[in-house]
Amino acid sequence: MGVWEHNLKREEVIWDEQMYALYCAEHMNGKVPAEVWSQRLHPEDVDRAFADLTSAVTNAVPYASDFRIIWPDGRIRHLRSRARHYVNDDGEPCLIGGEWDVTDHVLMAAELREQQVKAEEAALLLALGHAEVAHAANHDYLTGLSNRRHFDSVLREVSNDTKNRVFVLFHIDVDQFKRINDTYGHPTGDEVLRHVATSILRCLPVGGTAARIGGDEFVVLFPGASDESSLVAAAEDLIARIANPLMVGGKHIIASVSIGISTTRQGSLENLPVHADMALYEAKRAGRGQAHLFETRSAAQALVRRQLSADLEPALTTGDILPFYQIQVSPVTRVIIGLEALARWRHPTRGLLPPNDFLPVAEEAGLAAELDAAILFRVFEDRDRWTRDDKTVPQMAVNLSAARLQDESFIKRIRDTKRSLVGISFELVETVFLDDPTKEVLDTINILRALGARIEIDDFGTGNASLLGLLKIRPDRLKLDRHLIADVAMSVEKRRVLSSILDIAKALNIGVVAEGIETEEQAAIMSELGCEVLQGYLFGRPQPFQDIRLLSSPEAA
Prior knowledge:
Beta-Lactamase, TIM Barrel, 5-stranded antiparallel beta sheet, alpha/beta, Alpha-Beta Plaits
């Protein structure tokens, strides 16, 4: 049996040794001219043979044809040819097929010939199956790109390069891919991955290898001596190409990727993937949709952040991310009337970490939604424990980022818990509320209210909230920014500003919380100005659940 391959894009045909023997033709190196085949065809079979091939190519169906050929000595041989379509490593459409001599079979009885045909086709299917298995072992089933196994083998081959060429590696990661899957579904996510792969192939440099090495991660390895600015420009061009809107299921999806770049100029080939990974991390820190070239001086810091990021995901499921509570008190009785939940991380080696140490890492790693959910669910659990212990549970405030207000899965997560939001306040960062909050933000706020939650604006007084914004949002409470209160005892102007804010809040029937209270003098001034709730180190620092002392409920008496 002879095996042949026809590259439909380049119109190139390659034969193995057995094919030349079947056609009684002289062996040629490289591609086989079309006339070698056409000149051997029997004149009566030429039209049908070409028609069979054209039909298979045009309709993208398996190729099957029986025809006669004439050897140079005049003998006629009957050949059977079968082929299937596939896409090669360069993304080009091809036919791969086999041919064998069936002259003797043609002369056999019809029933014997039919049985033999079936056996031969089974053998061909088996041979093609082996070829497909070999192809599948080195390629990603979804995108057709090389897989990690094949990429690693290419990297090993490159390490034996004797030309001392410079190699470049792009590490490409789809930004917030989990959110795409959660919002639009996995079939849409698969289309996004195919779109990214196609965009990569269209930009693939000569001699380059593109691979999908993880769920939403791709790499491109290629030889190149371009200067650093040209490499970044090439990566940015790829980012722009991928960002072209993709229509899936009647919806426009815009994919964003971040790219880390490393070259062998900056280290050994063995370090190329590690350096590209570090550069990718820096690209995501810069705000996603960015390209970043590896820099030796920032490698140590990147390793620390990378490790922290790697530690964060398991911490979200082990309970190491938990709320600490800072009490809120009545300015008159100093009785606890509220609790604000503040995220803390009990890190196994670095101890107790405040939010500033890991919230940016969560954002960069695409884990902010999981972090918000982990804190909220722990608040639910703590509230249930206090209730079971017959404690009077005050209003519990939970911080909510702008991203959650536009995250369609956020409300679903809350509903899935089947927990009541009565007694829960969501503190929203003031910068979310401009004069014209989006419909998505307003819809989410209205749903939260319908579920029983109260809405507060955090850090009011130093951001972008306006009177118009307050009228549109209608928060239940404002939390005055601590910077307004820090020097209230010494600044008449600050007291006047605070008094005006409190007058406006009262006119709109909005409650006011003063945070950052650290002295009795500040507490007295804010109480005199009309603040309903005080919060700050004067009354207590954030504490874990077990250290909060709540009053027993009247029903328990």
